[in-house]
Amino acid sequence: LEKLVPNPRNPNQHPQSQVALLAKVIGHQGWRSPVVVSTRSGFIVAGDGRYEAAKALGLAAAHSVRNLATS
After folding, report:
1. Which of 30, 39, 48, 49 has a CA-to-CA distance to 8 between 20 and 30 Å?
2. Strand, coil or helix: what is 64?
3. pLDDT tens, 26-47?
4. Radius of gyration of the chain from Cα atoms?
């Protein structure tokens, strides 16, 4: 998780209640969707809530993929 960097310009904010629910789902079902990271910027482009939930669970790693799109 320490290598993942949230995008500081992301306008989406997740309330604590939503992060707690995501943490509960990840804890019970595991990762259903990865955290997507841009290869250009290195920032998280999808999955900020899942990233926050993983931090709340105290996980050392998160299921993530690199976005190879060039546009």
Report:
1. 30
2. strand
3. 989 888 889 999 888 889 998 8
4. 12
Using CA atoms, how far residue 20 sits from 14, 32, 59, in Å, is 10, 16, 14
What is the pTM for the complete model shown? 0.83
Phi-psi sector, 70: left (phi>0), alpha (psi -120 to 50), beta: alpha
Could you tell me the maximum CA-CA distance found in the chain, to the nearest angstrom?
A: 36
DSSP 31-42: -SSPEEEETTT-
Query: Three-class SS of residue 69?
Result: coil
Q: In whole angstroms, what separates CA 30 from the centre of its chain?
A: 13
